[in-house]
Design brief:
eight-stranded mixed sheet, 26 strands, Alkaline Phosphatase, subunit A, Arylsulfatase, C-terminal domain, Immunoglobulin-like, single chain, alpha/beta, 582 residues
Amino acid sequence: MTRFYLLFSILFACGFGSVSRAQDAGSEKPNILFIAMDDLNDWIGCFGGNPQSITPNLDRMAASGVLFTNAHCPAAACNPSRTAIMTGMSPHRSGLYSNEQKMREILPEVDILPQHFRNHGYRSSGSGKMLHYFTDARSWDEYFPAKEKENPIPPTFYPENRPVNLPVGGPWQYVETDWAALDVTDEEFGGDWSVSEWVSKKLGEKHEKPQFLACGIYRPHEPWFVPAKYFEPFPLEDIQLPRGYKSDDLDDLPPAGKKRGPNRYFAHIQKNKQWKKGIQGYLASIHFADAMLGRVLDALENGPNKDNTIVVLWSDHGWHLGEKEHWQKFTGWRAVTRVPLMIKVPKNLASSLPAGTKAGGVCDQPVSVLSLFPTLTDLAGISSGKGVDGTSLTPLLKNPEAEWDGVAVTFLHDGGSYGLSAKDWRYIHYADGGEELYHIAKDPYEWDNLAGSAEYAKKLEELRELGPKEFARKKAPSIKALSALKWRAITGEDAPASKPDGASFKVAFINRRSQPVELFWMDGKGGAKSYGLIESGKTQEQSTRPGAVWRIGNPGEKNASGYFVVGDRRSKAVIPKLPKNN
């Protein structure tokens, strides 16, 4: 009997040890480093989107694991994309499609990724922007800045006098659309440097519990203000225009595409001869973000958690810099939908992937960043729970060239439009029925819309059938959740004249006073037109435009106590209580 056990022990040690270690590794949950970079398109070295990009650390990350070269975001804006990634729910099921909506109003009970991992024995910590300008404090054990503040962005150095380079074209313009090289060090700049510092310290600690650690790098999100040294490698005279720009690119688009393409930002930037400066600012901001990523990767490499940490890097969506006559995001074209996605899994860490990822793996199958939720739970050996969309990417991590029958869908803000990415093709469907079809293998910049060609009618039908057929209703944010316009008290002259410029939307006027007030619109010559009374404690929604001025006065009196200037989005205008001596 003793000889049998001795022989069994020898055979076990020689023949079964590696299997046992893999099983043991699977039972010891892996740490997860979850890195997001904001507004990053394919302008990184390993993607080849712009030959002038300087991204050694993104390239290093890609070379250490699997790079997905055909990954796409779930939505074309920050809020719906990040909500989908963090909840695992596709926008067309959740009903959250746009930036103005609030996640916790639409999805009050759902557990987001860090909470889901907490439910399975993890400690969840994070820093920087992971959700749309809030932290969701209840979902984390620890956050920097403090989670209770619900502001994920650390103090950041910005110039006192703004704008610096791009003049404000009107009230429609986003205040952060500007760029400049700042005479500060990385540490003095703060922001992403502070995030990388905090995350790096966490990576240097040993833990009793497995860790879910999130790192939100804000750049290259606007404004493109970063320390001057990151501008230096990009002399303005050497800046190249985007490869995907084509002056007559809109001619073959359906009406919805032509409407979505050209926007006022690009025209305004061209008018002020800022196109190359804008590109320079974006390249500098990517270069800065890459350097901050490098600090985090170095900390992991030199710390105690190197061999037991899965690393994931993704972006919430891309960015147009003139392609399709567009600046910003919000479109279904590849410049916005295609994003970096990189995953590294060390050996003997995940029972579903005991060999880990092979360094330098490249996968060109169409995948969605929405798949990160089921992928990470799969790798951690925990259930993904109910209501999670997307498909685990583990088969492609095992073999980047494996067969894959999935497509990636990117939803637009109206709750009926989307872009669909297949292996070599892209299809865009607009809510009004307009369509676009591109053969990406031959036309990577989507210059030739083939939707109207009889030759490609079968392919068009094939991709059309792969798209979603039902869409959850888009739920408007409550008035409580809207951003507030600034109250401007009148101490001398009357309210200024309106300078309306932009599309209309509604503003909710809320009367906090104990008596009725009269609402006046100031016309373009400074005249006041009454829009009626707002009773005490009541709310009146009024259709208006950016740059409109609304004055508040006592009923029947000429003098007014204050006014609001409408900004670039739907808001609330809270009429404050009068001081006690009034």
